[in-house]
């Protein structure tokens, strides 16, 4: 109604010169101004203005233009998907360390000592990261890498991966069955499912880019340092560092050990030149006594400074076992609580920026072909279909059916409602679909 009022107010001075039409004649004029040789497939407002310029008018012109363009097949197959089209966020919450791992490949990179890929595994609770430089990305190296993790950190309950052939094969399946591990596959063309790994991939790539400099072939030598930096970096999600959450103590960095050791030795006047002179003048017994006294004194000060010497003695203050267990449980529970709060806030912020879409069984939808987003072809539409929704799952996954093919699952982010038109007997033949999980 407001659009009609606006039209009357804006064009009242020329309404007397317009030809008033109605019924099928009005629809034919609207189609000609939208999809005709001079139409250009513009939006509703521009199409209505073109009708006015052609000296035609009827009261419901704006509403009719909007309804016609909304159900126009060609116009519905244009445009892209944005953040506002995403589905509501559903976080993967884990309570124990090393219960759920996300795994993925990075690369290929420039060859470094024969290595071109990095196989990455991230723990969903502690954010602990394992990574290894590899010459290839096949099933054999994946199985070997997983067995190494299992032997050091225990067998997880689940592994989340994409649908790459290096993760979907007989060797990988046999390992899962042997160790009783469940493999959760991400929805095709939806990397957000493996968000933990994707975040680490970006962080690791950023660290390597800034550490290798111009010598790009040295990235495999810098990988261990990059892992150390990542493990000792504070993570807002858990309110701690992955190292502290796993080992229940802070990691002593080289710069920390160097400065605290220097401070302790300075207070005991540990002069190496004098000690060397004493060794020359005193007998072996005296030297042993002196060294023993200095070792004890320096160890005491190092312990006070928070540094322990690597000579087999533990200089930490004595803490009863029950009290220490309580501290460790508090650290774990605090990390879990921080993770819950962080993910709730992230979900609230994310969901506030998206459209409120409702999909029902039986709706017709168009599917965004993400392959064309990566390998774009000019003047080719990225939307295929229409398909029919057969089932809507609670976590954003939608099952679609096609007339001449099996049902398949996609993320709701990749579909949009299709208005009007008949379902063709054969949709885009080059469409890449993922069969349903059995």
UniProtKB/TrEMBL annotation:
PANTHER family per UniProt: ENDONUCLEASE-RELATED
Recorded GO MF terms: nucleic acid binding; RNA-directed DNA polymerase activity
Superkingdom as given in the UniProt entry: Eukaryota
Name by which UniProt lists this protein: Reverse transcriptase domain-containing protein
Source organism of this protein record: Tanacetum cinerariifolium (Dalmatian daisy)
Signal peptide: none
GO biological process: DNA integration
Residue ranges of every copy of the Integrase catalytic domain listed in the record: 84-250
Keyword terms: Nucleotidyltransferase, RNA-directed DNA polymerase, Transferase
